Amino acid sequence: MASNNRTPVIQVTGLKKQYKLGQIGGGTLTHDLQSWWARVRGKEDPNTVIGTDTRLFGQTFMALNGVDLTVYQGEALGIIGRNGAGKSTLLKILSRITAPTEGEIRLKGRVASMLEVGTGFNNEMTGRENIYMNGAILGMTKAEVDAKLDQIIEFSECGDFIDTPVKRYSSGMFVKLAFAVAAHLDSEIMVMDEVLAVGDMKFQQKCLGKMSDVAGQEGRTVLYVSHNMSTIRQLCTRCVVLDKGRVIFDGDVEQAIAVYMDTTDVNVVHYDLADVSRMNQSAGKRLRLETLDFVDKESSVFADTEKMRIRITWRVSEPFAGVHMKMNLHYRDSSPVGITHPVDLGPAQPGKLYVSEFEFDPSLLGEGQYFFYLDIFDGALAQAVCLDKPVTEFAFEVTSGDLSMPEWASGWGRIHFPPVKVLTSGAEG
Amino acid sequence: MAEQLQTNASNGEWTTIIRPRTGWFDIDLQELWRYRDLIVLFVKRNFAVLYKQTILGPAWVLLNPLLTSVLFNVVFGGIAGLSTDGTPSFLFYMAGNTVWTFFSSCINNTANTFVANSQVFGKVYFPRLTMPISQALTSLINFLIQAAMFVLFWLYFFFTGADIHLTAWMWAVPLVLVQTMLLGLGVGIIVSSLTTKYRDLAIAVSFGVQLWMYVSPVVYPLSTLGESPRLAFLMRLNPMTAPIEIFRTATLGTGSAEMGMFVYSLVFTAVALVLGVVLFSRIEKTFMDTV
């Protein structure tokens, strides 16, 4: 734990956030009346998201379930955890985007949150105008921006284009400008959600350097959420691991990463997906995955000679000529490994439960623990519209029975290519 | 700067406490004031967005009421032959229409606050009220431009011998304008709070505002309802009757401005505004969970 002789700047006590499951607002009055009328007659609600278990309606789930945390001035605190562990919810409450259900957070100083790069940027306005706009949105007065303007422009490397509307900027310039504004705020606390994942490598390093300075030399406090363990290592002085809405570890960065990696659960072979959250708003509406099973397995540990058989069930709410699927594979520290080539699961009609079984060959993966996301989409990958992508991480482990190989070394990456094909080999001449 | 932060942080007190949503009037006006620069920038942005890449640009601000007034003049004055209290009909319609446009744009531009900005609101915190306030101020500036045009036409009619003159109600006009803006803002933020649950309310509102115009003395004066006391009474219940009548009485010399009606309208505005702010501040804390 951090030393107690320093000043606490964030104190989180008993923080809870509850979300309701099932149908929530955002509809139209007609829809609500329709749903009400259907319920009165005991019929199925015509507006329910397909495949949802209505028995769960009105039930709640705790995105944060009693979080206590004290952050001291000048710390760079990393927050890691699986998807759905509560990281984003914690940041949203800290940034005052939504209110907690219970508990409280006490803060000293202003919070500048960067949950996204370039929030509030307007395409029609010039770079300079956007600096003022973005600064003001993040809580700076005009005078404060004036004082920092030259530094911001210099850091952004956009000096020549500063009076050009940002719609003419490349995406890289856009990101640089946006980060420059946020990094030069006078706020005492900075909250960042993986914003460094964008931009080119050189600029990423520059940003990380800047953030370290902000925390180390300027005495400000940085909260950083990331899936990228190497940036966590580089930036953070302390790290907490969230799991199922609670803090399960708080302290040393390396230990935290080890704890995080252990949250991969390879003992689960059946997943219920109907009520888990989705990667984006539209996912799970027109098509919804209901279950996923590792077929004929007690645990999801696979020998690298073994084929992985996976069965999914799903429903659609409208006819599809073809439904496409791919797996997004990640190592257990969340670094991406690769994707499978998309496959067509065939046409689908509403009203039926579809069962698809497929085989994945993990023989290319080096020994270790992995997880994948399932991505279902409409049409070709190039112009795909995501139909469903649960945030669930389907974990599995690959073991090797090959005695000619030593234990997989971390420096080898994740891919175990087949042996090269020896064309000729022999003594010269 | 590090030193300054040190003192800021070490002199003890917590500056912000984030708690569950409690109470009905939980709004930090001091904080809103600290974000005044943001309001100014939003107003500038509203203009930039409105007129960049348009052919006529800012001329739209003037063309819109001008064409509407001409149209009203032809349809309601010419074809329907409605009374205009004996004032030049063109000026009569322009006065009513300018005030009404001001009011309706305040409502229409604020009614969508939460839904239209959910992207930004979901990513960063700033006092949400800055958004509708800046929209109302944008409408105010548009109104002032239109009012300047009204003054030009007024001068033209005045010097060509039309029977118009200013009255003492002129002194009430600034208050009336502020009131009109606050009424539009109040109604707008009430609607915007409700649209987080029911999206179709936004459509109902733009339609409702159109209907509201016809029960306000925009295309006819209140005095035409003189023969029917019941209608005239109902008309006085409309909080927009007083501002329009006062504006006309003040600038054209004839109209049905009354003190009682004015006071009623002011009270109505205050109630709508307080209700709006209360609803708004309740919704802003958790609306991101339901959008």
Q: Report the CATH architecture of the largest domain in chain A.
A: 3-Layer(aba) Sandwich
Task: Write the CATH fold name of the largest domain in chain A.
Answer: Rossmann fold
Q: Average pLDDT of chain B, to the nearest integer?
A: 83
Distance between the ends of chain B: 40 Å
Compressed to H and E, one letter per element, the order of chain A equals EHEEHEEHHHEHEHEEHEEEEEEEEEEE
How is the main sheet of chain B built? none
Integer average pLDDT of chain A: 82
**Helix/strand structural class of chain B:** mainly alpha
Q: The biggest beta sheet of chain A, please?
A: 7 strands, mixed
End-to-end Cα distance of chain A:
68 Å
Key terms:
heterodimer; A: 429 residues; alpha+beta; Rossmann fold; Coagulation Factor XIII, Chain A, domain 1; 8 helices; globular; B: 291 residues; mainly alpha; 13 helices
Description:
The complex is a heterodimer of chains A (429) and B (291). Chain A folds into two domains: 8-262, Rossmann fold; 270-401, Coagulation Factor XIII, Chain A, domain 1 (Distorted Sandwich). Chain A is 21% helix and 30% strand. Chain A has eight helices and 20 strands. In chain A, the strands form four sheets. In chain A, strands 12, 14, 15, 16, 18, 19 and 20 form a seven-stranded mixed beta sheet that branches. In chain A, strands 5-6-7-3-8-9 form a six-stranded mixed beta sheet, sandwiched between helices. With 291 residues, chain B is mainly α. In chain B, helix 9 (173-195) packs antiparallel against helix 12 (241-252). The longest helix of chain B has 30 residues, at 130-159. Chains A and B meet through strand 1, helix 1, helix 2, strand 4 and helix 3 of A and helix 1, strand 1 and helix 3 of B. Strand 4 of chain A pairs antiparallel with strand 1 (16-18) of chain B.
